[in-house]
Amino acid sequence: MGVYAGMEHCIYGEPRELLTKVWVQEQYLEYWQVHNSEPARYEFLWGPRAHAEITKFKVLEFLAQINGSDPRSFPHWYEEALREEEQRARARISTTDDPSAMASASSSAKSSCFFCPQ
């Protein structure tokens, strides 16, 4: 892709600013300092807009495609993506039974660290 830290890219601009400011401001990402990290470390979490606009499974399929592999080649992320798909399916089923559950289903899509294996 030709995107490098500290170098301006003709499409994406400066990557650090794109990640830590633009996408955070647009709520695609959340950017937090890891508690008790010395020296300070930071993590990126999915923001509410990312949760609303795309699934982890779609991101994983794209990652596998550009790497010429299968989503199962990334077992940790694959399992997490499957869990999210199951949660989304359960939320859809429960909202058809109880329209007031829609608010709680969307708020339960809290940020999670998809590309940060524990």
UniProtKB/TrEMBL annotation:
GO cellular component: nucleus
SMART domains xrefs: MAGE
Region span, Disordered: 88-118
GO biological process: negative regulation of transcription by RNA polymerase II
Residues of the MAGE domain: 1-81
Source species, domain of life: Eukaryota
InterPro entries: MAGE, MAGE_WH2, MHD_dom
Biased composition range(s): Low complexity: 100-112
PANTHER family associated with the record: MELANOMA-ASSOCIATED ANTIGEN 10, MELANOMA-ASSOCIATED ANTIGEN MAGE ANTIGEN
Protein name: MAGE domain-containing protein
Organism field: Pipistrellus kuhlii
